Amino acid sequence: MNYPRVRRTLILTFFLNLCVSLAKGIVGALAGSVSMVADAVHSLFDSVSNIVGLISIYVADAPPPDPPRHQYGHGKFETIGTMVVGGTLLLITAVVVGYEGFGRFFSGAVPDIQPLTVAVMVVTIGVNITITLYERRVGREENSSFLLADSQHTASDILVSLSVLGGFAFVCLGYPVADAIIALGIAVLIAKMGMEILYNALEVLADASAPMDYDRIDVIMQTTAGVYSYHDFRCRGGKPGEIFCDLHVVVDPEITVREAHLIGNRVRDRMKAEVEGGVVDVMVHIDPFFGNAGPAEAEKDNGDDRIQR
């Protein structure tokens, strides 16, 4: 991964997201639109997300200390920061926005919809579309899971902003309560996003199984010379470049330790090179095959050496 390029992308999107948030917040406050202010707060968390990304990229790109203290890398520091943002800041924001929406619902205050208000929303939607497409392109080119996820987060901003414009339309048609109702809907959306971020972060911290292409793993085992079968396959990690795997590989019991070691190395190297998802390391445990069958029949005749996912 080209860390400097990812860092530059995050810095650029941070300032763009901050400008979008300030524009929505100032104009929304002047117009008295609680839904627009809620959307501004939602946009502000895009900037917070960029800060989390910058910190994680800095930690990931930093040279390891000698001796290394975190021998499995620093990836979970990003997860911890993400959990704080999703589990604390987003949920608090959802409560505040919901409270404001309820207050506006019962007060009956009507936002002042002006051409400037609509213009700001349209311009910020255009900026968010540009940010989403740019982050997605760089994320795919650099295989950056954070940029891809952040582009999806920004894309949710577009939907929220469109809903705010819809609320403006209902206000102009004589339904001022729509502004408060849409603010409550935005609060629910922010709370849902926070809960999803919190859940995904906890899954990573709890070493949940990483998504893997098991069919490709089967092919690698079937075509690697010297491998009779494999079992007890496990993996953990939340994103590319942080996935660790371990498995048991069954080999001929008559070969030397050196030959078995080389087979294990071939399995490790092929999994790191051929399995999509960013496998960073594979721990291979060598098991001897107990039986008289040849390699083609070893797996079906040896009941303990089954493929386990």
Task: Explain what this protein looks like in three dimensions.
The protein is mostly helical and 309 residues long. The protein has two domains: 3-205, Up-down Bundle (Alpha-lytic protease prodomain-like); 214-301, Alpha-Beta Plaits (2-Layer Sandwich), CATH 3.30.70. Helices cover 68% and strands 9% of the residues. The chain has helices spanning 3-31, 34-61, 75-107, 115-142, 145-172, 177-205, 214-223, 257-274, 295-301; strands spanning 229-236, 243-251, 279-288. A three-stranded mixed beta sheet has the order 1-2-3. Helix 8 (257-274) links the parallel strand 2 (243-251) and strand 3 (279-288). Helix 2 (34-61) runs parallel beside helix 6 (177-205), helix 3 (75-107) packs antiparallel against helix 6 (177-205) and helix 5 (145-172) packs antiparallel against helix 6 (177-205). Mean pLDDT is 77; it is low at 293-309.
Name of the CATH superfamily of the largest domain: Cation efflux protein transmembrane domain
- Order of strands, main sheet, comes to 1-2-3
**Major β-sheet profile:** 3 strands, mixed
Report mean pLDDT, rounded to a whole number.
77
End-to-end C-alpha gap? 29 Å
Instruction: Please name the CATH topology of the largest domain.
Output: Alpha-lytic protease prodomain-like
SSE ordering: HHHHHHHEEHEH
Low-confidence stretches: 293-309
Proportion of residues in extended strands: 5-15%
What is the molecular shape? elongated
